[in-house]
Protein 1
Amino acid sequence: MVRKEDPIKDCGPESTEEVGLRATVAWDESPITAIAATCRHRCPRGQHKVGTRRNGGTAGIGFRVSCCSWRCVGCGPRLRLEWATLGRRIFRGDVTAFAELFAWRGNQDSFRKCGRKRINEADGDFIRISTGSGDCLVITTVPISGAVPIEPIDADREFIAAIVAYLPPAAGKHQPIAKSDAWGVVRCGSGQYVIAGTFHGSDAAVNASYDTLERMGCIPGATGADGFRRCEWPANWGLISRREAIVWAGVQTYPPGYVVGDEFVPFMDDIADHLLSLPVWPIETDATDTDTVPAVVTAPTPEPVVSIITPVASLFDNPD
């Protein structure tokens, strides 16, 4: 279904007096501030992605991505803060205009089967958050069956409380919040770059990887205020060479046999296969080298035992 451009066409007109009244409401900032105070850790499973322009230019870009898991000590608090901030902007009317809001509580499956269909048919907007035990809270602009009218400031309070109380499951992937397209977040990026490789490890390891790229002929750039790290690829490198260079730089190793300015970067897999194909000769050691070959101690051969006992029968032998 294609969304209509007017988000409040089926919700009725909104007066200027209502918009002004909503803007003057004293919104409580303490819940969002409390959530922001929990954002103290960095995602331990984050990765550093390296991209190159799709149109074949020499510009390169690097940025860090996180695991975006609600169970992560770094990403969980950050996701709560992002959604709480987005909810505040939605209910204040900063994202799209609306005439009324309605709150609905019930089973998530029931909402997916009936409520969401009704909202789509009315070309309305909604945001849903799980509240545990298969239930959810829905704030929408459409009066679906079972929903009750709610003031924007009360919707904001209920939504943030649900975010704070949410407990992610111990295993498996789960997205507790869903929303309509018009109430989404505009992400940065225009699709001009394609991911060419990944650097793993700490910041020191990533810096060492960029140092390896610099040795191979890349021109490093500074990290901008947007957090992206820039670089310039050699002009004669294609996408394949750039990807192989990232593979070598990821392990902080200069490709053997490569000369700066060459068009093609050696394939790591080809070099590995070549090394594996080399014959393995047995290691020869000097038998006289007592440091490497342990001395073999041979037990002495025992001498035959001579009996000093005269047989009893020989005492009675006749000397004749």
Protein 2
Amino acid sequence: MQKSPYALILILILFTGCSSYKDLYVSNSSDQLASFNEMAEGKTGYIVLNTDKVIEGISVQVQPDSVFWLSSYNQTPMSIETDRVKEVRYQRIQRGMLQGGGIGLLVGAAAGVGVGYLSGQGTLLSSDDNAVLFGIIGAAGGGALGVFSGLEGASEDRYRLTLKRVAEDQ
């Protein structure tokens, strides 16, 4: 029984989502904290507690002592102590779609070219023509599947909260 390489290709396409981790240093003099709060204004984020519970919130604002946000359900202001928060996540759907589509396109094209060459010469097309034809079909199909898998496994930016105190803050 010969194993098909298509199972591996499908798995590669389906798991194209990426995450990037950034340390967010929480201190009174952190310019990084101010930049984060400006970036987060009006966006939906996910607050991950130390217990791994996830809370969805809008306009997450991180301060040295507390994390503030608006409830995504009724816009109620909420807060929690900063030392109870592990990280804050933001999904980047467009980036996930682009990454998934790009990887799917490349994998599909490579698989299509391989199938085209392996199919040999037919009655109408040469082996090279088959490779081009199957490469185009594979690229289109792989790209489309990649875009949809990128939607599902959207790229994430993860900000790990690091309680760093400098001498002047104490």
Protein 3
Amino acid sequence: MLLRVFASLLLLPTLASAVTVEVVKLYHPLSFHNTDGVGDEAEGGEPIQAAVMARPYAITGAIPEDLVKAVAAPYQIASNAIGYKVKEANLLNLCKVTMSVEMKGAKLLVRFDVSNLEVPEDLDLVARHVVGLAIEAIRSTLRDYFKGIEDEEAFQVSIAVTGTNEGNATLKDLAVRFKVGE
């Protein structure tokens, strides 16, 4: 009997700390600053030094909320170039855009707060590129993760832009709604 109690006490911390960790394909809005690389095309077909790209990411927590929050995770592009020392490539972090995410019923609400938005001078981008690529990263992440789900599991996504000011009020026009699971 004493042996069973001792064994149970040893196993208790293991059971309490059991967490599901899943490796997913996560898309990020990335800057290619300090490189010669060209990424996506902006509106009008103009090439920009940024793109939405995927990487494997080990995630835990609430899905889809934490999955979307991970789009803003810090990202350093690996390189074998001695002079390439860029510590952060995620546009959301570089430009100080924050995000809130919550699930309300069958609708995922995402809000980009651009009240502190600041595009660094070494980025050859405008705020509209940053927010547009971030929205595309969320859409790609959700569609990839939820591909093949049943119609009854489908959900709506609403992405809005908050914290605008007189100079960047048109960023609100980037608000979008789409369905995941179609």
Protein 4
Amino acid sequence: MNKTSRLLLLTAVILMSCVNAGYSAESYKFALTDMTWAEFYAGETGKSSADLYAEGLDAVSSPTSRVAYRFTQLVSESNDLGGRDITGVKDVQVRMNQQVYNAMSSDTRYTFVDDTFTEFKPVNADGSFGSMVTELHTQDNAAVSLTTPAVWGTYLFDVGSIDVTLGSGDTRYYMGALVETSDGKIYGMRHNNNLWFNAKDIALSTKEFTEVHGVSRRYKYTSDMEGKTVRKITYMLKNLPDEVVNCNVFLKYQTSASVYPVYDEGYHAVMAGENITVTLAFSGVPSNSDYKLSGVTFGTGRNRRAISGCTFSDDVLTINGQTQEGIYTATFSDSNYADISASINVYTTDATDKIISADRNAAGLTFLLTPAGVSDSTDAVLEAQNFVNATDYTSVDANFTENFTGGSNQIEGSGFTKSEPESP
């Protein structure tokens, strides 16, 4: 046996002895640490936490403590408004080699443990964190739909194929999510801004947006996503395989176009009946668009239901079947631009001055108002569905002048109590 062979044999014997003795070629230390959103997503996005923070990946404010506390896997702190700021992810599992450990062992941000983690973020020599090491479960034929505009943001994804157990209220495992576009850019999503208790819902905004509770959505970080195509959504789950959902969803361009009903002169609604018709007018529609009727619904919020068989031709909408008093919504869709909708008020008796169609507020809700100064007490009622945060709206009707403020649950003299919809 020559000298080289003897050295190779000796090396193999030493390595085998180390393995048998419980040692590895490199020794690692494991710990838990809280991370800001920017720290948590730095490894996945290939950017530094400082760059991500500058791009707008910062804390998310919740107007109440209740919502923040329900996200048990997150870090939050009280703010000056009586709510809480959700700053990042709690107790993230990390691994560091001996050299990094020697430099970091006195850092109080780490809680070192004797356990070894199979899922972890590696700690780099400069103190930053790499991409999560974990198992992946891929869904190639996932049903992913998009609504735009939506109640919770400029865009709302419905990932219908995701495991429904993530939406059961047990949020311990739901650390975050990644949205990757076809240009290769990866965006980290934040709870209470993009992610919700129901995991199938992911919302994001590309411009200033206020949701139904009056909370402004953070949009700076995702402002460049309009017009991009989302090809992958990854759910980051603690000590579970991450769910990777491959998809092909185009984020339609936003538009200032609108569509609205044109009621008969002197009317503020249409009378209920069989197969009623209403003229619709369009404004500001892009010249390269091709909007077509995509659906008609009745009601608002979670009580909304689809009405089948409706048609639109020569600017006239026909609502199929026997209609009833309330709000009908006709939605028009285009392949490149966001949906636009018309709210149509339907009344069962006098539709002249007894119903006033209020303008939509920032949340996109619609109200039906009846004048309070009429002799018939049954007409002195405010009829509204999911009334939330309508601010300083005054009726244009001479018989009804009422200022609304979102801070009051009871609208004085109306007999109506505000009903707040729940977060998704």
